[in-house]
Amino acid sequence: MQIDREAPVGVFDSGVGGLTVAREIMRNLPAEKIVYFGDTARVPYGNKSKETIIRYSRQIVHFLKEQRVKAIVVACNTASAFALDTIEKELDIPIVGVIEAGARVAAQETRNKRIGVIGTEGTIGSGIHREYLKQQDPEITVFGKACPLLVSLVEEGWLKDPVTDEVLRRYLAELQEQQIDTLILGCTHYPLLRSAIRRILGDEVRLVNPAYETALELRKVLEENGLLDLGSENEEFPYRFYVSDLAEKFQHFANSILPYDVKMTKKIDIEKY
Ligand code: DGL
Fold first, then answer.
1. Confidence (pTM)
2. Which atom of ligand 1 is nearest to the CA of 187?
3. Of the residues 187, 197, 222, 254, which is catalytic?
4. pLDDT for 101-119, tens place per residue?
């Protein structure tokens, strides 16, 4: 199949969280165009079964392929944990998830080989970080902690709030007791809580932001496949946003975190795919 290096990259998530990944792609690969899909009608993914997440991800990939994307980024940790393996086998374009690159960097960063991972119930229950980290270094011990309340707190905009700090303190206490020296922010929303987490854990614990690492991984994959955009014509709308429900709420959140003014978000019927 002939793929065009000027085609957009497809990025998807269960909702708004994957915008933290889109943001890193915009910052680090400014020539790339993006088609973003947020599954706002079916969010959250974090408490759903593997079968359901595979079905949802297949539908979204089908939609993104229809948009003629040249590569796909699964910007959702839960979808990366549950569906990436399956979808990769079915696709004829490169696909990148958010888990592997973060795990690789965490394995390089840790000194005491004690790594914490926070994420949704699905991501932590899947044990996928442990798998990747053990592949990197079998001596690493991994401590996972599901933090389901954090997604709502971020979407509420409570990034600097005593309630969020208290919730974080309770979730992170177990990991502090285990003396981790590296923490993977294994959910799309958590990079937005970076400062709060840093305040609680102090400077001693390295925080790994998979959104950033994924943007770097995407660059590598595009380069390897001869698909890196070398600076095509400036387009009026280099970033296109699609959702499955309530475009206004999505747009409001997008404009609060992106270095780009999102003027239009289109709602599509994802169940048709
Ligand atoms: N995007 C999801 C993730 O990174 C978090 C939100 C959800 O549960 O859908 O796992």
1. 0.96
2. 4
3. 187
4. 999 999 999 999 999 999 9
